[in-house]
Amino acid sequence: MSPPPSHGVDLGVAQSHRRPGEVHVIVGPMFAGKTTALLRRVMAEADTGRTVAMIKSSKDNRYAADAVVTHDGSKFPCWALPDLLSFKNKFGADAYHKLDVIGIDEAQFFGDLYDFCCEAADLDGKTVVVAGLDARCELCGKRAFFTLRKTNEMQTELIGGADVYMPVCRQHYTNGQGVRMDAARRGFETPTVQNDLIFETAATV
């Protein structure tokens, strides 16, 4: 089967001239200001005339159903979605084509994050700004690979903040039952670990 006509356009040249996309990652522990940094970056892009859109997980309804909200109350309208790969269809093909920057808050909720970022940046030339968790244990300051639920709620999915969860290392996770009950009794009077660990990296996936 012959390839479709290119109407005089060299597809290889057209692809080489397409503006390359970017993926920027903002990571840090809980309450480190990741969402604030994300909003600041997206609004700065909008101020330069670029078209922007924000996405968050539909599971996150702590502050608003249709906005990304920082802990200090700053808001930005968003698309609340169960997955990222549905965004292009929901946003509309024409609107998506004109879109320059996509912000993603609480990225750890999306199982298709990698595939979406590759498609948006590599194929569609978008700038994608992602904010998600990279935590430190709130009990000892070591790298936190686990999130410990501090309450006795039993449902599989429970959306909450510091009143419900804390990032912990493996040691404190395996000892979690005792830690959780003790934290509940003490009103979570745990040693403070300085949350100055947020950093931003930029890379093209």
TrEMBL record:
Catalytic function, reaction form: thymidine + ATP = dTMP + ADP + H(+)
EC number: 2.7.1.21
UniProt KW keywords: ATP-binding, DNA synthesis, Kinase, Nucleotide-binding, Transferase
The organism's place on the tree of life at top rank: Eukaryota
Keyword check for NAD: no
InterPro entries associated with the record: P-loop_NTPase, Thymidine_kinase, Thymidine_kinase_CS
Family, similarity comment: Belongs to the thymidine kinase family.
Name this polypeptide is given: Thymidine kinase
Organism: Rehmannia glutinosa (Chinese foxglove)
Taxonomic lineage: Eukaryota, Viridiplantae, Streptophyta, Embryophyta, Tracheophyta
